[in-house]
Design brief:
This is Ras-related protein Rab7. This protein is of the alpha/beta class and 178 residues long. It is built from six helices and six strands; from the N terminus they run E-H-E-E-H-E-H-H-E-H-E-H. The protein has helices spanning 19-28, 73-76, 91-95, 97-108, 137-146, 163-177, and strands at 4-12, 43-50, 53-60, 81-87, 118-123, 152-154. A six-stranded mixed beta sheet has the order 2-3-1-4-5-6, with helices on both faces. The structure holds guanosine-5'-diphosphate (GDP) and magnesium ion (MG).
């Protein structure tokens, strides 16, 4: 068994939910209020140790084109894990998860879509101390259960809350499916 693994992770969800911020927080420990549609690269990498394995996560971000066009086949090709992100304060971003899930299955065409490792992040839980939240944790977990027990994490890219834990789960899932 190899002691190294290179795993491709793609991050999907509506524009503005915090995909780029989550990656920046995880990889660079940085957060910016300023709206930047892209990090200027196709992907960023993060190395981590899981048991006796050195894992390199290659995390692919969109350049903001999720707003108006499809992401292209290169984006989806060979993905080992798909992170779906919504904003707990915006109902629409929760509802479109169905579309993103469907789009992934269509574009990436995994051998067994039922068994493919998806994970859901409910982001921006810090906003107004949680008082502007419109999607409950229960609703989110129900959606995850209906999709075959997708793991769920509530995160704040702004405060760095649960971000490492969530991506650690991503890495472990991607590694298992390898
Ligand atoms: P993307 O379009 O999904 O990549 O979203 P961005 O990462 O560009 O974030 C959109 C906006 O939401 C930016 O102004 C971020 O600063 C802000 N944002 C992202 N994550 C959080 C969060 O966890 N909490 C709060 N309060 N704002 C966030
Ligand atoms: Mg972005």
């Amino acid at each position: 068994m190899s002691r190294r693994a290179l795993l491709k992770v793609i991050v999907l969800g509506d524009s503005g939910v915090g995909k780029t911020s989550l990656m920046n927080q995880y990889v660079y420990k940085k957060y910016s209020q300023q709206y930047k549609a892209t990090i200027g690269a196709d992907f960023v990498t993060k190395e981590l140790q899981i048991d006796d394995k050195l894992v390199t996560l290659q995390i692919w971000d969109t350049a903001g084109q999720e707003r108006f066009q499809s992401l292209g086949t290169a984006f989806y090709r060979g993905a080992d894990c798909c992170v779906l992100v919504y904003d707990v304060n915006i109902q629409k971003s929760f509802e479109t998860l169905n579309n993103w899930h469907e789009e992934f299955v269509k574009q990436a065409d995994p051998v067994d879509p039922e068994a493919f490792p998806f994970i859901l992040f409910g982001n921006k839980i810090d906003v107004d101390g949680g008082s502007s939240r419109v999607v409950s944790e229960k609703k989110a977990r129900e959606w995850c259960a209906s999709r075959g027990d997708i793991p769920y994490f509530e995160t704040s890219a702004k405060e760095g809350y649960n971000v490492h834990e969530a991506f650690l789960c991503v890495a472990k899932m991607a590694l298992e499916g390898e």
